[in-house]
Write a structure and sequence with these properties.
Blueprint lengths: L6 H11 L3 E8 L5 H14 L3 E6 L13 E6 L6 H12 L3 E5 L10 H7 L1 E16 L13 E13 L6 E8 L2 E11 L2 E6 L5 H4 L2 H14 L8 E6 L7 H11 L3 E7 L3 H11 L4 E3 L2 H6 L2
Parallel strand pairs: 1-2, 1-3, 3-4, 4-9, 10-11, 11-12
Antiparallel strand pairs: 5-6, 5-7, 7-8, 8-9
Length: about 290
């Protein structure tokens, strides 16, 4: 039987199922290609279908960012009016989300409330070079599925703490035989802040793991906790090359999903699945029955 799917209907349902979030990105300053980096990030984030990104160099928007779901700061130095500083601080304290990138903690330490909220100030950096970023194991509890380790060409930023609040470091890098934080999150009032030291130029902004970090960081600061566990039905538990076992183990290793059922025409393979994966596993010999099950 041939089945026809109406693309317009499918796309309409997908739009209804996904909620778009509006993000304000403030850029500007010296020594960084702000506009080209922001354009790269806009393409990456909006391509995922969850965010719309408004980019501006006008800091006046910080006086009242309440119409946005989150704010990204990729800027260095310059001036903040009292209204702009307090508008942003009040927005985050009241439950808003802030993602601060690279130089957003540089040359702004005279603004005490802003600096305390971001949590650190820039001290120094090494030259642009290749280095390895390591994601700490306990970060998975609040930033799930970040790449455990990746190499990047970037400017290695070193920062100094400027808050008594807890900063939960989720990534580190090595420089001259010492470990330094590359990213952390903190609670601020009822809101959340994520800071990453990465992001000097286009090479970082094009890096897939940097883009992934900003994407997941936005979800985190907006309080989009992980959805319910996705229950997977595995069609076929083949013995050749241990593929049934292999796929089951990969499912188990992926945060947010669990193996709930296996379907195979061979009763011996269903018995093997239960022995290897647990008696809780639901088993089926008919794919349509598995698909229709809870």
């Amino acid at each position: 039987m041939a089945v026809h799917y109406d693309n317009d209907t499918i796309e309409g349902q997908a739009r209804e199922a996904s909620e778009m979030h509006s993000v304000l990105m403030i850029i500007g300053g010296t020594a960084h290609p702000f506009e080209s980096c922001a354009a790269i990030l806009k393409t990456a984030l909006e391509g995922g279908g969850q965010f719309t990104l408004e980019i501006t160099q006008d800091r006046a928007a910080l006086a009242d960012p309440s119409s946005y779901d989150a704010v990204i700061l990729y800027t260095v130095g310059g001036e903040l009016t009292r209204d702009q500083e307090q508008g942003l601080v009040g927005y985050v304290r009241g439950g808003g989300g802030l993602v601060a990138i690279h130089c957003a903690n540089a040359e702004l330490e005279k603004y005490g409330d802003y600096t305390e909220m971001v949590g650190t100030v820039f001290i120094t950096h090494g030259p642009v070079s290749d280095f390895t970023v390591e994601t700490l194991s306990d970060a998975a509890s609040y930033l799930p599925r970040l790449t455990s380790s990746f190499d990047i060409t970037d400017e290695f930023y070193m920062c100094e703490r400027r808050t008594e609040a807890e900063l939960r470091v989720f990534q580190e890098g090595g420089w001259q035989f010492e470990r330094h934080p590359m990213g952390y999150v903190r609670d601020y009032g009822q809101g959340r802040v994520l800071y990453t030291a990465l992001g000097h130029d286009e090479r970082a902004f094009r890096h897939p793991d940097f883009q992934d970090l900003i994407f997941k960081g936005l979800r985190y600061v907006m309080g989009q906790e992980q959805e319910e566990t996705i229950r997977v039905g595995l069609l076929g538990y083949g013995p050749a090359f241990g593929m049934g076992t292999h796929h089951s183990e990969r499912i188990a290793d992926t945060q947010g999903v669990e193996l709930a059922a296996v379907c195979d025409r061979d009763p011996a393979r269903l018995e093997a699945a239960k022995e290897e994966q647990g008696e809780h596993l639901s088993t089926f010999t008919d794919a349509s029955e598995m698909a229709a099950s809870p």
